[in-house]
TrEMBL record:
Gene that encodes it: CDH8
Predominant cellular place of this UniProt entry's protein: membrane
PANTHER family in alphabetical order: CADHERIN-23 (PTHR24027), CADHERIN-8 (PTHR24027:SF273)
UniProt xrefs under PROSITE patterns: CADHERIN_1, CADHERIN_2
Matching SMART domains: CA (SM00112)
Pfam families: CADH_Y-type_LIR (PF01049), Cadherin (PF00028)
Species for this entry: Ailuropoda melanoleuca
Bilayer topology term: Single-pass type I membrane protein
Domain of life according to the entry: Eukaryota
GO biological process, one term: cell migration
Name assigned to this protein: Cadherin 8
Lineage: Eukaryota, Metazoa, Chordata, Craniata, Vertebrata
Membrane-spanning segments: 613-642
Amino acid sequence: MPERLAEMLLDLWTPLIILWITLPPCIYMAPMNQSQVLMSGSPLELNRLTEEQRILNRSKRGWVWNQMFVLEEFSGPEPILVGRLHTDLDPGSKKIKYILSGDGAGTIFQINDVTGDIHAIKRLDREEKAEYTLTAQAVDWETNKPLEPPSEFIIKVQDINDNAPEFLNGPYHATVPEMSILGTSVTNVTATDADDPVYGNSAKLVYSILEGQPYFSIEPETAIIKTALPNMDREAKEEYLVVIQAKDMGGHSGGLSGTTTLTVTLTDVNDNPPKFAQSLYHFSVPEDVVLGTAIGRVKANDQDIGENAQSSYDIIDGDGTALFEITSDAQAQDGIIRLRKPLDFETKKSYTLKVEAANVHIDPRFSGRGPFKDTATVKIVVEDADEPPVFSSPTYLLEVHENAALNSVIGQVTARDPDITSSPIRFSIDRHTDLERQFNINADDGKITLATPLDRELSVWHNITIIATEIRNHSQISRVPVAIKVLDVNDNAPEFASEYEAFLCENGKPGQVIQTVSAMDKDDPKNGHYFLYSLLPEMVNNPNFTIKKNEDNSLSILAKHNGFNRQKQEVYLLPIVISDSGNPPLSSTSTLTIRVCGCSSDGVVQSCNVEAYVLPIGLSMGALIAILACIILLLVIVVLFVTLRRHKNEPLIIKDDEDVRENIIRYDDEGGGEEDTEAFDIATLQNPDGINGFLPRKDIKPDLQFMPRQGLAPVPNGVDVDEFINVRLHEADNDPTAPPYDSIQIYGYEGRGSVAGSLSSLESTTSDSDQNFDYLSDWGPRFKRLGELYSVGESDKET
């Protein structure tokens, strides 16, 4: 208690001591009213003003300014006296007036202009404004004339403990790893106090924990929070709430305090091993499940979180390690068992696996807690399923010679039903892979036969697909690819590799190589091609050329002599027999064309025709081509002219490919009947080309030229119409080139003013045998003759 009392007294007297030390010599604290007086001179001069000083009237500075103090938050009934202004020029006659200006003058601070007393009329807050700068001046009361220059002074607001500490950044959050040792630093907090830190203990803070013990502790001065218990377990409790207090006045009684909260979260460490929820798992799977399908999932639980809970799964033992695999699901943290190889219920019906789950990230600090892994047993039962047929091989390779006979067996595929019931199998070819239907298959035994001839030179490989279908269940099918290779036989004779044309110089030397040729064979023998070259038997003793076989399987043609003359013979044909080495060997004869050419002295071919001999006058080939072109152009012009001329003179009666039409001339004069022979000229009905009695038909091209008999020459006038029609009818009937059909032309316009109506019989609803033309006689003398003609025609048909 004595120490505590001494400390309290020290806290109370320290501000007074500091204030007393800092007071300037010109400030005097009035003992009666605690006012402050600002006067000129020293303290001695303030109490003892000697006569000598008054007599000398020596000039002194008017003001010696320093600072005044006033307590904040003062709220008495009367304004608080801050201080008093006084000058040595004031004789006490009340002729001097004091004026105050500056910060808060008139609003916060008021001055008695007679006595110079300064009062604070409002409550002051140091935290809002710590000091005020004012200006004082003494003036003459009557004239307001300044007696001295103005001077500044400061009024400082003296602090009291009126602000509690505050945590500006609260509430706080912090983390600390679980299982941390005692005294592990968690975080630190900071509080602020608006009071004056240099005046007393108003801003001296001390920290403490109100809630959160015994788990955490705090340093009183630095506010560092630490763990107070070791090995706190996140799995037991993850989050803690700590209440922290900051108190001023050094934590003593009477001080103000503020609080904040700190939420401490324990972060996870890998201090727990994985553990399977059950020691035995059971799964079932059909035998026809697709490879890679998930069969089941196993899960090992881990109390840790995040990467500390990640586990890897493995199959460490069992009779199905080759058929199954297990993978880890990072999201669900479990193991997925999948099928690696096909299952067969008929072979094995169940499997047993031993799986292990182990932590991926192990913290060596906790390795002593035991192995961070666990094991479990998995039993998998295979269920029977109706499986499709199984071929004896996944692929088949067959070979067949290209000259194989039709319906011969190429090979065989086999398949079986793996089920216990063992259904019979039916085979077929997928015709999408054999569009040309070159192969067939026996539906019962799977033997593949040849349906159409093969040609290796067209296609070496044929890829087909064979389908096996269960007879009892047509939905169970299997497919297998079959590759058929066509083997070569010697069925193609060799021939020249290309079209060769050799050139022989007139000035060539005997034994000179004229041309080197090579042969090709579409066949493909195992040991490669080997060709034999020879001349025809009748040309073995060819006087002009000979042949020579080269090592590269080619042939060279050589000249036997020189002095070839293209004027005597320009081209030589040399038949060459080419034989292969097949069994049996095949041969063919190819002819090499050898052209005699004129060459330069160094053997360069210059001309291979008889141009020099044909054009002794020295015309060049270009000039000869130009002349020929001009001649051909002239011929074309003449032909076009003759063609156009003929086309212009051709009669426009009937074109070759058109139907036969009668030549009809329309006239308005009807005439006066048969008695009227002057009405029209019968010659207008005749074709000008038929003056001689012959008028060829133009609708077809006659194979025979019809020579009509010479008839009577037509006369311009007085011709009997009946006779004229009968003559033309007789010529048409005896014309073998005339088509056996009539040509009908319908005329829709019948003229004007006709009282008879239509004369056409084409629209009659009766047949020819039913028609009676006697009514024409009733139309008048003009139609009587026409009726007689039709009546005669009908009687002729009946006879």
